[in-house]
Design goal:
This is Site-specific integrase. The chain is of the alpha+beta class. The chain contains 20 helices and 13 strands.
């Protein structure tokens, strides 16, 4: 219960916050000056109200000062800052993953005691470590195969809460996520490490990873300044940051893309449509996954992007908005793409009839066997097998988006149109990503002008 102490014409309200790790009592205080002219009865009522409100704020964690520990502030930051932002689940999950490492190494520090050296040492620690590229993947061990050979597959899938297709893929040597691997190990009742092995090679942590931590910490500290917890941000412009690592995006040139598409003609209709669509539309993988039949205008040959599918650890595949406001767009495509759509729809209806009332109709174009949205890793895995089989340039799903943009720019399509088709938030984003293609196209333009305008006799001089 709050204590009220008279201080001249004002009052001091004190609320106990328990004890810290050293056994010292934590106190929260607030000075309050009631309105003038109140009777003793009304004054007491007003003070009791103010004390109760202040105590409730303290109990909810809304009252903080420089003695608040970083780990406690981060928890409140997630509740009151992140919770009020319209952030995608993927972004929130990224923040949560990063905050675990921050809390592990810096969480014990009081907000007012955090220095730039603390942060610099933390960044150096992160940079000196190792990590996994693109999330850790696992394969089953020989012991797993021996154990499951004596068990019913349905029993494992029901206990783990996964589908039979996942177990069949594992038996064939396929990869899976840490989350699913743990579920399977729990269902079998054996030690995780005896059943699964990581397939990811250890690698040096990238500069970009350190910068991700910095952006999150900087955001947290700026919020602390705005909330009056600390007087200034000890991070901003006070720590040395690694340079951003700019990598040229993987893509196919026009000749490589033509060879790719020619070989794709003999592939199953699902993958033939998906990979053609990625190249010809330039859509992001999540946008392809989010397409529904209602988004396809067969008459005007236009597809409309209204949503994107995203995978969030612990939640699975979820439907959300595309990456930016301008990502909601309409894209016109060649006639033959819509011929592929028609052929695929006939195939999908045939498959739907096979499963009967097990089909869940969400209107998605790319689905699993039961109508649920397909994990785009399935198409990504098929793409790798396809390029390996034909000895083609190794590319991933996002490379097909880069292929689309690069060929358009090299063909002379203006940057504004390319940016619009890609759904970039602004044209500068397109220019930065595809600077290498723009420079090549510029050099070709210079050569063209030379060939057209300069007299051969002048060239010889």
């Amino acid at each position: 219960m709050a204590n009220i102490e008279k201080r001249g014409n004002a009052f001091r309200i004190v609320v106990s916050g328990g004890f810290d790790v050293n056994g010292k009592r934590i106190k929260h205080t607030m000075n309050y000056k009631p309105p003038e002219g109140l009777s003793p009865t009304k004054l007491k009522k007003d003070l009791d109200r103010a004390a109760l409100e202040f105590e409730e704020k303290c109990n909810l964690g809304y009252v903080m000062d420089s003695n608040t520990k970083l780990i406690d502030f981060i928890e409140i930051w997630f509740k009151n800052y992140v919770g009020n932002k319209n952030l995608s689940p993927v972004t929130v999950k990224g923040y949560q993953d990063l905050s675990l490492k921050i809390a592990e190494h810096l969480g014990h520090l009081k907000m007012g005691k955090i220095t730039s050296k603390h942060i610099q040492d933390f960044y150096n620690l992160i940079k000196a470590g190792t990590g996994m590229r693109g999330g850790e993947k696992y394969q089953v061990t020989p012991e797993y195969l021996t154990i499951v050979a004596k068990m019913k597959q349905r029993d494992i899938s029901e206990k783990a809460g996964i589908n039979d297709d996942t177990l069949r893929r594992l038996k064939k040597g396929g990869n899976t996520t840490l989350e699913i691997a743990r579920k399977v190990a729990d269902a079998i009742g054996k030690d995780f490490n005896s059943l699964f092995l990581s397939t990811n090679p250890q690698r040096q942590v990238s500069n970009d990873t350190v910068l991700h931590y910095h952006r999150l910490l900087n955001n947290i500290m700026n919020t602390a300044v705005r909330w009056g917890v600390i007087p200034f941000n000890p991070i901003e412009k006070r720590v040395e940051l690694p340079k951003t690592e700019r990598k040229e995006q993987a893509y196919m040139d026009d000749k490589e893309a033509m060879a790719f598409l020619e070989l794709l003609e003999e592939e199953p209709i699902k993958y033939k449509l998906a990979l053609n669509l990625l190249i010809y539309s330039g859509l992001r993988r999540g946008e392809i996954g989010g397409l529904k039949w209602s988004d396809i205008d067969f008459e005007d040959k236009i597809i409309t992007v209204k949503r994107a599918l995203k995978y969030v650890t612990g939640q699975g595949i979820i439907e959300g908005d595309p990456k930016t406001f301008k990502s909601k767009r309409s894209v016109k495509l060649p006639d033959f793409i819509f011929d592929l759509f028609r052929s695929y729809k006939v195939w999908q209806l045939t498959e739907r009839l096979k499963v009967g009332d097990q089909w869940i109709d969400h209107d998605y174009i790319f689905t699993r066997w039961n109508g649920e949205p397909m994990n785009l890793d399935t198409i990504g895995g098929y793409l790798k097998k396809f390029t390996d089989k034909h000895g083609l340039k190794p590319v991933h799903l996002h490379s097909l988006r880069h292929t689309n943009a690069s060929i358009l720019i090299a063909s002379g399509v203006d940057l504004k149109t390319v940016s619009s088709r890609l759904g970039h938030s602004n044209i500068s984003t397109t220019g930065n990503i595809y600077a290498h293609v723009i420079n090549t196209a510029d050099a070709k333009a210079s050569d063209a002008l030379e060939n057209i305008l300069i007299n051969p006799s002048i060239k010889a001089q």
